[in-house]
Amino acid sequence: MKRTISFWAILLGMCLMAESAFAVKNLWRQCGIGGMIFRETGWAAITSNIIWDLGTTATTSEISSDGLCEGKAANTAEFINTTYANLEEETAVGSGPHLETMLDIVGCDQAVRPVIIESLRNNLKSEISTVEYSKKSKSEKAESYYNGFMNNIANHAKACPLT
Asked: Which one, of 99, 121, 124, 120, lies nearest residue 110 by Cα?
């Protein structure tokens, strides 16, 4: 029991130190899993990141991909992770409000949207047909969808500006 209380006390102390240590940008608060789930609650984001993997995902995501933890790309990742089931269904159909919202987040021109949606449909069709797809977690599926979407956006950078 004392160990459990000590653990939580240390964790809380780490959260408070991490919260105040980064005045401009707090990687544990803004990045990683905690940053995606608890955008408005800094202490909860930090706690989540520390509990999940001692903050390595948060720090790695910022170091490896400049700007990943903020802006349109991060907002898109969060949206895809949160609404993946809807996006999967709407992508299969070829239209829907979640698809439109995702394209709005990135700021894609109306003219290029049908091309991107068709490409997403083809990607999803290919992925669903694999044996591995059924074994993936929701997060893994969402991440794969995000990667495919970002590849499409890169092919249409002028029509879908990320900056």
From this structure: 99
